[in-house]
Amino acid sequence: MLLITCPVTGTRALVSIAAVRSIVNHPDSIAVSATCPACGQEHVHRTGRRLESARRAAALEVAVRRAEAPTPA
Ligand SMILES: [Zn+2]
What is the pLDDT of residues 19-58, one digit of tens each? Predict the structure, then answer.
């Protein structure tokens, strides 16, 4: 789960791993793109300002990659 602040409604929303669309590593942060449960749009949430949030995003990335990996035949 990831806590984001929706830029449209201004509310904080919990985003599940299933709602994460992509994760991009940047030198200073990790950009997590997810479908917002509050407004339904896709927002990019940047983490990594703190080490702990970077760790959480990295764990999320592993989980997403596992979920996207094709099942071996
Ligand atoms: Zn939103």
Answer: 999 999 888 778 889 999 999 999 998 876 655 666 778 8
The residue with greater pLDDT, 60 or 73, is 60
Contact assessment for residue 60 and residue 73, using Cβ atoms and an 8 Å cutoff: no
In a domain, 18, yes or no: yes
pLDDT at 72: 72
**Distance in Å, CA 16 to ligand 1 centroid:** 14
Domain carrying residue 29 = 2-68
Ligand 1 mean position, distance from CA 5 (Å): 7
E strands, the chain, in order: 2-5, 12-15, 20-25, 30-35, 42-47
CA of 9 to the centre of ligand 1 (A): 6
Number of domains in the chain: 1
